[in-house]
Amino acid sequence: MTTQSQAQPGTVYIPGIGDHCEAIAAALRAVGQPSEALPPTSPASLATGLAVGKGRECMFSLMIIGGMLHRAKQPDFDPERAALFFPDFTRKCVGVNYRSLFRDALSSQGLSQVEILSPGAANGYRGLGEHPDVTRSLIWHGLIAVDLLIRLQFQRRPYELQPGATDLVYRRTLGQVIAAIETGESRLVVAALAAAGNEFAAVPIKRSAPRPRIGMFGDFYMLYNPYLYLDAVRQIEALGGEVEILRFAKFFYFVNWLRQQDALTLGNRQGALQIALEDAYQHHVEAELVATVRHLLTDEHPVEPPASVTVADIQRYYHVGIVNGGFSAGAAVDMARSGCAGLLHSVPFLCIGSIIASALGSRVRADLGQMPWLDVIFDAQGGTNVRTRLEAFLFQATQFERTKLRHTPANHTHVALPRSPRATPLIPLAVQPVGGD
Description:
By secondary structure, the chain is an alpha/beta fold. Among the domains are: 11-127, Rossmann fold; 213-247 and 304-437, Rossmann fold (3-Layer(aba) Sandwich), CATH 3.40.50. It contains 14 helices and eight strands. The chain has helices at 20-30, 43-52, 59-72, 98-108, 132-156, 165-182, 186-201, 232-238, 248-265, 269-293, 307-315, 326-337, 352-367, 386-406, and strands at 11-14, 35-37, 82-85, 115-117, 213-218, 242-245, 342-348, 373-378. The strands form two sheets. The protein has a four-stranded parallel β-sheet with strand order 2-1-3-4. Strands 6-5-7-8 form a four-stranded parallel β-sheet, sandwiched between helices. Helix 1 (20-30) runs parallel beside helix 6 (165-182), helix 7 packs parallel to helix 10 and helix 9 runs antiparallel to helix 10 (269-293). 47% of the residues are buried.
């Protein structure tokens, strides 16, 4: 971590990945830390990032530094009191090296005073207030609540009788959840989500014409910004489909599993136990929040499965210890298990993990009865023939859904998928899941 002093920074800026970042900023404000979520990546902010890049960076790094530099151009920006929030929680990709890149880019623009804030155990979660565990709990409540609001929006909008009504409810209830987070009271976040459920329920819908469900997955920073996923969600809805999007919770549970494995490898059993307790608490919070809107969700199993299930799915195709690339394959399998009829993979250009995941696609599809799979690549140059490709993809998904229903017993609606973590992977495994089934 780069620091100027041990004093709390003036304003912490959260990268504009999506509405989840609004929840993080609200949680920091609740504990007295001024915080602002940067706007979602736009053509202008991405162009700013590209201008300081050297041509070797992945999309995520250019998005973050571009958003920060774009904000720094505003007259109210004070570099002496600013910090860029980039937590060090994963070894999923080359992101562990981003801080050096950000520091160089900021310095090249005369912004060397800007701090890069990386809360973690090594620095006492600096930036998360005097009681970081409370702040982390509040952030987690916010992330799950936003996950659920997005799920309600996507599950109900394709069937609404009043065009635009669902989006209006989403924006209004998101504001209510953010306001609840800012109070610092997690119970009020639960109450705000329950109230949001009532508002969604009041929007008239008609499900007489079922739609094929499309599982949309990929690197999480691509999945909550229409500009980056080429507005594929609304295009799919216009073409007669419904989208299920990869949720933040699945990724964080997987990160917990990786952290626990690292602790066990180092012989740190106490640390591994602490991570297991944190994971159990996070699952408890998720279940509590899901319960408030369960009656509105169409998912058969609306709570994320344990990370051991994701690990088992990954191990069929990739060495889980390598991590980069395998997570998306595991997420795709779980989406198929939940009833999706097609898989849409959002791919950022120059991302090694996404390229690997795309390469694994043919093998995943073979295990899923040749379920339709489409890679949609964002390369900052604009989409080419995306609409035409989505039309063909939706046609294939619709046909796949019909075939599946014809050959599935009445009491079964999902593809039967193997779950054992002992399935043969592509290469020998060096890491085994804890408590696998």
